[in-house]
Each structure stands twice: as structure tokens, then as C-alpha cells.
Design a protein that fits this description.
Length: 454
């Protein structure tokens, strides 16, 4: 494995045969996992896909999904994540060629950190079966009708006021209809954001901007860079932004004890299961997300997303200013966001918050996703209410799969889990919601015990 070659970002010479200045192999450079894992630092990042070693140190800044999501796999095998996130991996591989610096030595296992190779191979076989059976192909009619019911709700809400006026009861009914359309548009933008609707990624991107921008007034890029990190490392502290609670809450079993031992008390965490109802569901979308979205668009000079978002607010005020005036229209959209936020928080947290939340453990794709996600029982209402995210396990394993196929792959996933002794959790909707509060109380109690006694 000795020999010349270009220097890496850290100044360490690449092992094996010479590596040309463009990154292409001039020989057969081979590496051990130990050598690959040395390159998992800021400014020096290598990862492995299909046993080939890539230096992504500089390219990560240009990664379409954002620098963070790809950097989370530095020093690791990223094969399953690479295949999961890209509908056409073969097309994407051509962009990897200039980054190739070698491959794993023949004596090295395909998996890092002692991962179960049989389990990984079985999951990859399941992935191949999913592709063969066409479960990654969308039904355009399903999503067309879904968009239609969102637009119908918007039209009915406005028509209600035009025909019957703006009494308190009718304004409340209008708000409920708008909140429903906003929540359902949230699930639809999620579909386009995951590239699970159209065959061409470019069409998914355009329609994603339309739905999240024009129908919801938010930013596609903000959502992509945040949400893909969550999928890459769900419930992993410092990597999943959805468990970065900015010291407002402590989550899981490890973080509360760490805070308690360090005597950190930013909030009275033993009461977090109570104040969650005051600052969690009511404020996430109307306050935190709204501020973060506009801050991101301006700081990154993302004028395209800003223009799309402005079309939403322009349309909204044109529609409702004649009824409520300027301040009344602001009050209406704020109330709609308030209602939507409750819907969004409970649906998104019931699948994740009660599950394992820990620091990086370098698990394989299947084990990692199962430890951080659970399903909710299937029913027509649950499917609609959650945007089919009651099949959270299947969605996390196959993020580009159109949601109407989750129920078809679920029995196959369950069988694979049973084979390898992995938990496949399915809860009722009521239990899942209650577990959110129970998990917050448990974490708060762990913090208090550590704060007082450790």
C-alpha cells in the first residue's frame, strides 16, 4: 500500500498507486478502514461507496443536498444512504469520478465499525426487489387528486366568506379549512422534496418550489438542507437538526444526564412535559420556522425561494384583505399557522421523539432508521392525517418511494426485521401522542436526578 500519490487535505500522502491531479487513479490505491476514518474532520473528509474511496473535502461545499448531510458520513460507508437519496444513482456516479482516490483493500470488510454485513446485504437485496417490483414508481393520478383536494379547500375557504360573510363562526371555519389545506400542502411538498413523484428530478424540484413556496410561503432549499440531515442521521445528536432543541428541551436518555452532570439548567427540564404544550406545538411554525426560513433566505441570498414565498403572501393578502383589512389578514394567517403547527408537531414528533436519541453510534442504515422511527397503525384517516407518515419506517428506509406504496413494502420490511431480531414498532395514534409527553417527562426526570445527585 506504499507509494507516491497526491496529498490529502490534511497533508497526508494518499496510499497506493499514483493519483493524478484531477483525482483519477493513476494506479490501484487501496486503503484500510482505519486510514479512511482518519479523514473525518472539518476540511478533510473521505467516504466509501461500493468499496470505492472518495475525497469529498472540497466538493462537499457544492453538494446539492448541502454540505452537512454528506459530511455526516465522513469516514464511513455511505452506500445505502447514497442509493436511498438519489433516484438515479448511476447518473450521480459520474460526478463522483473526479473525487475517487482509491478503494478498500481486498482484506477489508465492506462495512465499517463492525456492522453486520449479512444484515446489510439482506437490506440491499430488499432494495433490489423494491426496484424490480416497481415500488419506486409513482402514480400521477394519486398526486394530481391530492393537489386537487388542497386547492379545493383553499377555494372553499375563500368562497365561504364571499357567500356568507365574516361572522366569528364562519371565520373560524375558514381558518380550520385553511389550516387543513396548509397541513396537507406540507405533506405534498414533502413528496416533491424527496423526488418521489416525477420521473425527472428537475420536475420534482420545480413543483417542490411551487408547493412549498406558492402554496405555503416557505423555502425549498431551507427544507432540503434541514430535512435531508434528519433522514441521514435520525435522532443522532449534533447531526439531526430535528433533535437540536437549542437548550429548550433535553431528549432521550443520554442528553438529560449529560446536562445534569454538567449542572446545566437553561430551563426547568423536569417540567418540560408541561411547558411543551405552551411553546412546542403553538410556536414552532408561526414563530421559530417563520423566522428561520426568512433568515435563511436572506442570509444565503436565495432570491428565487424568496420570490416564490412572496407569491404566497401576495395571493393571501389579495384574497383576504377585502374581508379583514391588513392587520386582520395578518391575524388570520397567524391563527392558521398556529393551528397548522399543532397538527405538524404531533404528527412529526410521535414517530421520533419517544424513540432512541443518542450520539453517533455508526449503525448500518436499517438499524439506524429502525432505532429512531416507529409506525402508526394504518387506517384511511391516519394515512390522510399524517400524509402517510404513519409508515415512517418505510419512508425512512426508502425516502424516494411514493407514499402510496408504503403499505406494499411494509410486510417485507417487517419480515426482514424479524429475521435479524430488530424491533419493528407499530403504535395506535393515541398511544403515539401520549408517548411524546411520557418521553419528555422521563427525560426531564433523568435530568433532575443527575442535576441533584451526580
Amino acid at each position: 500500500m506504499g507509494g507516491g500519490g497526491q496529498q490529502t487535505e490534511s497533508g497526508e500522502p494518499a496510499k497506493g498507486g499514483g493519483v493524478g491531479p484531477g483525482g483519477g487513479l493513476g494506479g490501484s490505491a487501496v486503503y484500510t478502514w482505519e486510514e479512511v476514518q482518519r479523514h473525518s474532520h472539518r476540511g478533510d473528509k473521505w467516504l466509501v461507496i461500493d468499496r470505492k474511496v472518495y475525497n469529498i473535502s472540497q466538493w462537499a461545499k457544492r453538494h446539492p443536498g448541502g454540505i452537512r448531510v454528506i459530511s455526516h458520513f465522513a469516514g464511513e460507508d455511505a452506500t445505502d444512504a447514497f442509493v436511498a437519496f438519489h433516484p438515479n444513482p448511476n447518473f450521480v456516479r459520474k460526478f463522483l469520478k473526479p473525487l475517487l482516490v482509491g478503494e478498500l483493500a481486498p482484506t477489508e470488510p465492506s462495512q465499517d465499525h463492525g456492522k453486520n454485513e449479512t444484515l446489510v446485504q439482506d437490506f440491499q437485496a430488499l432494495r433490489d426487489r423494491v426496484e424490480r417490483e416497481g415500488l419506486l414508481r409513482a402514480r400521477p393520478l394519486f398526486f394530481s387528486l391530492y393537489l386537487g383536494h388542497i386547492l379545493l379547500l383553499e377555494a372553499l375557504a375563500l368562497g365561504l366568506l364571499w357567500v356568507w360573510g365574516t361572522s366569528w363562526s364562519l371565520t373560524l371555519l375558514c381558518s380550520l379549512m385553511l389550516a387543513t389545506s396548509q397541513a396537507q400542502a406540507g405533506w405534498l411538498q414533502h413528496d416533491f422534496g424527496h423526488l418521489s413523484v416525477c420521473k425527472k428530478s428537475s420536475w420534482n424540484h420545480v413543483l417542490h418550489k411551487f408547493v412549498i413556496g406558492h402554496l405555503k410561503g416557505a423555502s425549498a432549499n431551507w427544507w432540503n438542507h434541514r430535512h435531508f440531515q434528519h433522514h441521514a442521521k435520525p435522532n443522532v445528536l449534533s447531526k439531526d437538526p430535528d433533535v437540536n432543541m437549542l437548550h429548550v428541551f433535553v431528549l432521550g436518555d443520554k442528553q438529560p444526564v449529560e446536562y445534569g452532570i454538567k449542572k446545566l439548567k437553561y430551563m426547568p427540564y423536569h417540567h418540560q412535559h408541561k411547558y411543551f404544550f405552551l411553546i412546542g406545538p403553538p410556536l414552532l411554525i408561526p414563530v421559530f420556522f417563520t423566522i428561520q426560513i426568512f433568515q435563511t433566505m436572506f442570509s444565503q441570498r436565495n432570491w428565487v425561494d424568496l420570490a416564490w414565498a412572496m407569491t404566497f403572501y401576495l395571493r393571501f393578502f389579495c384574497c383576504y384583505y377585502p374581508f379583514f383589512g391588513f392587520l386582520g389578514s395578518i391575524a388570520l394567517i397567524s391563527f392558521v399557522r398556529f393551528l397548522e403547527s399543532h397538527w405538524f408537531v404531533w404528527v412529526t414528533q410521535m414517530n421520533h421523539l419517544p424513540m432512541e436519541i443518542d450520539h453517533e453510534r455508526h449503525q448500518d442504515w436499517l438499524t439506524m432508521q429502525l432505532s429512531g422511527t416507529c409506525n402508526i397503525e394504518q387506517s384511511t384517516f391516519n394515512d390522510w392525517f399524517s400524509g402517510h407518515l404513519n409508515f415512517q419506517i418505510e419512508h425512512h428506509l426508502f425516502p424516494t418511494m411514493p407514499r402510496h406504496n408504503y403499505h406494499l413494502v411494509a410486510p417485507l420490511v417487517r419480515t426482514l426485521c424479524e429475521k435479524h431480531g430488530l424491533p419493528y414498532q407499530v403504535k395506535t395514534l393515541q398511544k403515539a401522542i401520549i408517548d411524546v409527553v411520557r418521553s419528555l417527562k422521563k427525560s426531564g426526570d433523568l435530568w433532575l436526578d443527575a442535576y441533584l445527585h451526580k
